[in-house]
């Protein structure tokens, strides 16, 4: 009997230690990633200053010119446009779904959101090539009087906006659920209509949550790679309009992985691009999540 | 109500309804466009054969290598992530249950990790691979994808474990079981459907992601026979074939996209099934 007791406790200790090892591993992961990328990109940072790299326009790795500004500006364009397209859609439909929708609408739309969230980015890219790119080159471009191939910033933004819709929508629905019922009921009992309550109480109260949902969507959009890469055109020039091709940061990394081994500085430049992505995304995530947490505390 | 207000309410309700419809329409156009373009090129040959000579010029062969490669990769990564992720989730909900602040900080950390784009994981995995002198291989890809899905795995399991009432923990302790026994025999048993859903979710992420394996697994026409060989994956098969100018090859890319979409749909259906089961299993 005594033997079994000892065995049980040894097993308990083994399990607990394994749990501890795992948790330390997981917690240290973001630091490892950050440090790893920093070490890799330090080769480039030794020879060039970070300000020069970010603001110079010329990307000619063979002659030693590493200007990131075309990529950063493309990334900003694509991300901002995607958010502009998807933000109103998400906000309106999340209000619809949480306040007005019938039960059968919810029963249809929840699986739709789940499936949209699960579709791989490559499939979104294929959809972009099959539907969005022809749509732009045949209808939207000529409408604005432009002859274009369709592979453009706007194509990337449209594909991206659909990709981040389920992500933002889920957070918005959660945010609206945290608003206490007493508040809306008080407003209704004071004689405000349902729409007035929604407009003046619900949306106003949830405002920080809404902004941080958009912030999270923004960071998701900023790092998305494959789908954007497939429709955005990939020309390393500062885009002059939304119908021009662009070349966002993730696409730069993904497109050049084969060549980068031969030139050490090139490799380092791509890792710097990854580091920039990492830092920007972490920053947006951090701020938005902190805002959501403070909203939940006020509840 | 004044007419002005009526018009405002009517207007907003209409555009709210329209934006909900837009979301549904987006999904429908995605599925229809993939079906219409993929179905004609889909054949038994495509899913049962590896590429033959001249495959990339539109001759015979299939993408079995990519299907098997993707399955190997995501099964391996899900298993590894499960081995690391389950203990972490249990540790957070049992051993650390008294330290609410610490657990919430860990959750916050995991959410941040979840937000990191997969291309960053890919670049990180690649630099580690170079550092240790690996070649592009199944092993390197599996490790990278594991890192990528660990936060997803932990957070989804954690969300399920969170719903278990504390009374269950206390009654298990009061019967004299150790913490690890409570964890694996009581908590896991109680949450099996939810845990299965979490694993399926991570599996779906693993099989669909291209950016993290782009650097690390390489690409080959053969089915890998060991961990050190390069491996083809479905997303990359779609991506590479799509960039070909030959129409037959392009059509195959659409068919491959259809296969991938079907796999994802099956996983999502299974996940829904298990999470519905969990709702029945729940004690409140």
Gist of the model:
By secondary structure, chain A is mainly alpha-helical. Helices cover 79% and strands 1% of the residues of chain A. Chain A has a two-stranded antiparallel ribbon with strand order 1-2.
Topology:
The complex is a heterodimer of chains A (299) and B (284).
Chain A: H1 2-47, H2 50-55, E1 59-60, E2 65-66, H3 69-100, H4 103-118, H5 121-143, H6 153-178, H7 181-189, H8 194-205, H9 207-223, H10 226-231, H11 249-255, H12 264-298
Antiparallel strand pairs in A: 1-2
Chain B: H1 3-38, H2 44-48, H3 64-95, H4 100-115, H5 118-131, H6 138-162, H7 166-174, H8 179-208, H9 234-242, H10 247-281
Helix pairs in contact in B: 1-10, 3-6, 3-8, 3-9, 4-6, 5-6, 6-8, 7-8, 8-10, 9-10
What does this structure look like?
The complex is a heterodimer of chains A (299) and B (284). Chain A contains twelve helices and two strands, in the order H-H-E-E-H-H-H-H-H-H-H-H-H-H. By secondary structure, chain A is mostly helical. Chain A has two domains: 2-45; 54-298, MetI-like (MetI-like fold). A two-stranded antiparallel ribbon of chain A has the order 1-2. The radius of gyration of chain A is 24 Å and the shape is globular. The relative contact order of chain A is 0.14. The model of chain A has no long low-confidence stretch (mean pLDDT 86). Chain B is globular and about 70 Å long. Chain B has helices at 3-38, 44-48, 64-95, 100-115, 118-131, 138-162, 166-174, 179-208, 234-242, 247-281. In chain B, 45% of the residues are buried. The interface between A and B is large, with 83 and 81 residues.
């Amino acid at each position: 009997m005594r033997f079994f007791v000892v065995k049980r406790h040894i097993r308990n200790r083994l399990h607990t230690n394994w749990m501890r090892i795992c948790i330390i591993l997981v917690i240290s992961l973001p630091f490892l990633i950050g440090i790893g990328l920093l070490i890799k990109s330090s080769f480039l940072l030794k020879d060039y200053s970070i300000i020069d790299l970010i603001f110079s326009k010329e990307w000619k790795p063979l002659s030693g010119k590493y200007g990131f500004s075309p990529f950063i500006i493309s990334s900003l364009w694509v991300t901002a446009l995607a958010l502009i397209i998807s933000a109103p859609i998400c906000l309106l439909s999340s209000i619809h779904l949480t306040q007005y929708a019938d039960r059968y609408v919810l029963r249809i739309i929840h699986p739709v959101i789940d499936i949209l969230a699960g579709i791989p980015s490559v499939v979104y890219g294929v959809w972009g090539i099959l539907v969005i790119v022809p749509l732009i080159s045949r209808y939207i471009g000529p409408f604005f009087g432009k002859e274009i191939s369709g592979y453009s910033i706007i194509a990337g933004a449209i594909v991206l906006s659909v990709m981040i819709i389920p992500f933002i929508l889920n957070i918005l629905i959660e945010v609206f659920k945290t608003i206490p019922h007493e508040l809306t009921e008080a407003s209704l009992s004071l004689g405000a209509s349902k729409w007035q309550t929604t407009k003046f109480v619900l949306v106003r109260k949830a405002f920080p949550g809404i902004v941080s949902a958009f912030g999270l969507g923004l960071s998701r959009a900023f790092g998305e790679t494959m789908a954007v890469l497939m429709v955005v055109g990939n020309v390393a020039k500062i885009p002059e309009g939304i119908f021009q091709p662009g070349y966002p940061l993730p696409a730069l990394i993904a497109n050049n992985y084969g060549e980068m081994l031969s030139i050490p500085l090139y490799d380092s430049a791509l890792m710097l691009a990854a580091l920039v992505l990492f830092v920007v995304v972490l920053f947006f995530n951090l701020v938005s999540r902190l805002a959501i947490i403070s909203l939940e505390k006020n509840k | 109500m004044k007419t002005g207000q009526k018009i405002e309410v009517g207007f907003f309700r209409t555009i709210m309804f329209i934006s909900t419809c837009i979301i549904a329409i987006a999904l429908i156009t995605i599925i229809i466009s993939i079906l219409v373009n993929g179905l004609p090129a889909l054949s038994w040959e495509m899913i049962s054969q590896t590429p033959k000579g001249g495959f990339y010029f539109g001759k015979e062969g299939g993408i079995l290598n990519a299907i098997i490669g993707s399955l190997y990769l995501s099964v391996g990564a899900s298993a590894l992530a499960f081995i690391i992720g389950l203990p972490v989730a249990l540790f957070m909900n049992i051993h650390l249950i008294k330290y609410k602040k610490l657990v919430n900080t860990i959750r916050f950390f995991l959410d941040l990790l979840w937000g990191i784009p997969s291309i960053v994981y890919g670049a990180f995995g690649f630099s580690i691979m170079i550092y240790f002198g690996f070649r592009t291989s199944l092993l390197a890809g599996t490790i990278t994808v594991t890192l990528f899905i660990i936060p997803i795995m932990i957070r989804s399991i954690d969300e399920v474990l969170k719903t278990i009432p504390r009374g269950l923990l206390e009654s298990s302790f009061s019967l004299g079981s150790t913490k690890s026994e409570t964890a694996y025999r009581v908590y896991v048993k109680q949450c099996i459907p939810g845990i299965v859903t979490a694993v399926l979710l991570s599996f779906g992420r693993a099989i669909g992601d291209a950016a993290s394996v782009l650097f690390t697994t390489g690409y080959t026409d053969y089915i890998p026979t060991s961990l050190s060989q390069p491996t083809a994956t479905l997303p990359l098969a779609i991506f590479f074939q799509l960039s070909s100018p030959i129409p037959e090859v392009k059509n195959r890319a659409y068919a491959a996209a259809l296969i991938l979409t079907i796999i994802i749909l099956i996983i999502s259906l299974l996940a829904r099934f298990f999470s519905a089961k969990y709702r029945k299993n729940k004690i409140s």
